[in-house]
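Below sits my pick:
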Amino acid sequence: MTTLETLSTAAGRALLRDLHQELRFDKQMGSLPTLVLLWRICTRESDLFRTVNRDVTVLHPLGLLSGTSLWMQEIVNRFYYAPINAFVYMGAAFLLVAVGLNRVRVIDTPGLLVAAIVTEALLLLLLFLVMFFTPPAESDEMHGNGEGGSTSQELIRELGEIGRDYAAMAVQLETISVTLHEVVERQDTMTQQLRESVQAAVGAVAPNPELMASMKMNTKALAEFTESVSALSERLQAVERQEVERLVRQELERILSRNIVDRNGPASAS
């Protein structure tokens, strides 16, 4: 029988990593049951032969807080950092798609944009918690992946900046669009009031051919003005779409060129 003071020692940490490998690959246990079992071992189990096939006794269980911290360091951070990072990328992509669709009026649903922002914020918070509980002693494998982790963090920051800029731009363009709609609505109201006034004047006085011709000309001019405003609104929307596409191309070219330079830099150095 092996006796450990606590699982936070070097031997205890190595035991946790071995247990994870055994449960996931030897016993083919799922990720969620493995995480739950290892969390229970880290927090309150003292005799490991009750849960796993190891004749090990822990004299002092770590408890809820310290055990959870050890579990985050040795299990979640070491073995599940890449999947969580992938989910963060997926959330950033979802945010960009939601902003783009809302911007080009394909889906005019503010709830979709809010859901994308909340999802990305929660994923970034989860990534922060995982990175916060970094193991105190990095293994050789973790050192080997350090450069890739820094590159991923840089990409995440870039995507966050792009999403923030697009969100601000979408808010400004939304304000412009609302203003244009208000102008059109006011113009329609004025046109309707003018028509009512003309009809009231026609009903109050005897028909006058010159007055009727003048009124028709005014009505036609107002209709042409309304059409001009509508055409201007459509042109503004087309210009906004072209501007968004140009900004997206510029940002993607800048990110791709930076990634190519970052990747070619270490390769040329080696």
Observations:
- DSSP finds seven helices and two strands in the chain.
- The radius of gyration is 32 Å.
